[in-house]
UniProtKB/TrEMBL annotation:
It comes from the Eukaryota. This is XPG-I domain-containing protein. SMART domains: XPGI. PANTHER family: ENDONUCLEASE, PUTATIVE (AFU_ORTHOLOGUE AFUA_3G13260)-RELATED, FLAP ENDONUCLEASE FAMILY MEMBER. Pfam families: XPG_I. Residues 1-67 form the XPG-I domain. One of its GO terms (molecular function) is 5'-flap endonuclease activity. The lineage of its organism: Eukaryota, Fungi, Dikarya, Basidiomycota, Agaricomycotina. GO terms for biological process: DNA repair. InterPro entries: 5-3_exonuclease_C_sf, PIN-like_dom_sf, XPG-I_dom, XPG/Rad2. SUPFAM superfamilies: 5' to 3' exonuclease, C-terminal subdomain (SSF47807), PIN domain-like (SSF88723).
Length: 237
């Protein structure tokens, strides 16, 4: 991938080149992934394999508000995080989530993807002012209380347009005019893979089973489950 691997996978997922993105990093949803596999438990004592698969369109908070890509982006911008600007000091994820209910994140996404230059600057100035007003007054009634300190700490340099565009317009293969190739389905050639590991990585035969158990089996099982799910959907149709 020419940029972030997670962005590449999210873009491929949004265009239906792959079924889902398997990652513990929720940034995949900010990058536009449609479906995120976050947890796979292969040691369940009942012998089942529960897969925590998160379809973005079905994400809802405890009060049944939809959690959109805009809300997730707003949460990332306010709370900060890895590879991000610090965010707004003292702003918890719960506060960002409540602001998302009022549509601040969705309006930001729409503006950044449709405006530029002075028009975008004017939007951000007004958008920032409205967020601060909401934090100070709870005008919408969607916050659990007012957050004057958080409002005071929002500066005119927040949020960074570069960071927003990193999420909404990430560098991927498409940025360089390349297209994704549809994945071809074929059975895993485990024997060939074993020989490759022995030859290039000097992994002894006796150690390959452990390596495969830790690195390979999980992916094979998830792929098999996805294929079974596809067949079931086709049968219903």
């Amino acid at each position: 991938a020419p940029g972030e691997a997670l962005a590449e996978l999210a873009t491929m997922n949004s265009l239906s080149y792959i079924d889902a993105v398997m990652s513990e990093d929720s940034d995949a949803l900010c990058y536009g992934a449609e479906k995120l596999v976050r947890r796979v438990d292969f040691t369940n004592h009942e012998g089942t394999i529960p897969v925590d698969c998160v379809p973005v369109r079905e994400l809802r908070d405890a009060n049944d508000f939809s959690i959109t890509r805009g809300t997730l982006l707003l949460m990332a911008l306010l709370s900060g995080g890895e590879n991000l600007e610090p965010g707004v000091e003292g702003c918890e994820l719960s506060v960002a989530l409540m602001l998302g209910r009022e549509g601040f994140g969705d309006r930001l996404v729409n503006a950044v993807t449709s405006l530029s230059g002075i028009k975008l600057e004017r939007f951000l100035a007004n958008w920032r002012k409205r967020i601060k007003y909401e934090l100070e007054t709870n005008n919408s009634g969607l916050l659990d209380k007012v957050y004057n300190t958080v409002a005071f700490r929002i500066t005119n340099s927040w949020p960074s347009v570069d960071v927003i565009k990193m999420y909404l317009q990430p560098i991927t293969s498409l940025s360089f005019g390349k297209s994704f190739q549809p994945a071809s389905r074929s059975s895993a050639q485990l024997g060939e893979l074993a020989r490759l590991c022995e030859f290039h990585f000097s992994i002894p035969t006796i150690g390959l089973l452990k390596v495969f158990e830790e690195r390979i089996w999980h992916g094979l099982v998830v792929d098999a489950l996805l294929q079974c799910n596809k067949k079931a959907i086709c049968a219903e149709e």
